[in-house]
Amino acid sequence: MTYINGEQYLFRLSIGQTNDSILPDITINENSITSSSTSLSGTGTISYNNESFQISATYYGDFDYYSIYAAENSIVYSAYITINKFGSYSIQNINLTVKDLGGDPNYVELLLLQNDDYITATNYVTTYMRIPE
Q1: Contact 95, 108 (CB under 8 A)
Q2: What sign does the CA torsion over 83, 90, 118, 18 have?
């Protein structure tokens, strides 16, 4: 069961909507990346409506950097994302590989929302649809 908490997010969350993902397309500042066997974090920018916004993201899981194969098959358990001027949200109980999360954001949402999931909405218009089993 995935738990998505958007209480601190100052914008609407769209989940299960075509071309509108909760997983932003991030340009990473490679100098900001820090990693350990239990976390991976960094900062960067995202673009939205022709504007750039600063983002910081931290992913927790079981990370192995011994090889590309090991890194891609590392398990991510949770993500905490903060976007300047948008606020923050978290996604917990992910249990997907790094390779899974690196794919098409709309497909990743389908992977995240495949069971009985719990979504805490924002104070703004939140749109989501139930993914049929």
Answers
A1: no
A2: positive
Predicted TM-score (pTM) of the model is 0.72
CA quadruple 101, 95, 22, 38: dihedral, nearest 10 = -80
Is the residue at 98 inside a domain? yes
DSSP alpha helix (H) spans, the chain: 68-72, 98-101, 105-112
Residue 88 lies in a domain: yes
The answer to the question of residue 36 being in a domain is yes
- What is residue 133's predicted lDDT score, i.e. its pLDDT? 42
Residue 38 belongs to some domain of the structure: yes
SS3 content of the chain, % helix, strand, coil (to 5): 15, 45, 40
Report strand pairing: 39-48 vs 26-28: antiparallel
Instruction: Note down the domain range covering 67.
Output: 3-122
**pLDDT tens digits, residue range 65-114?**
999 999 999 999 998 888 888 788 888 888 889 998 887 776 777 777 76
Number of domains in the chain: 1
Residue showing tokens 């899981």: 61
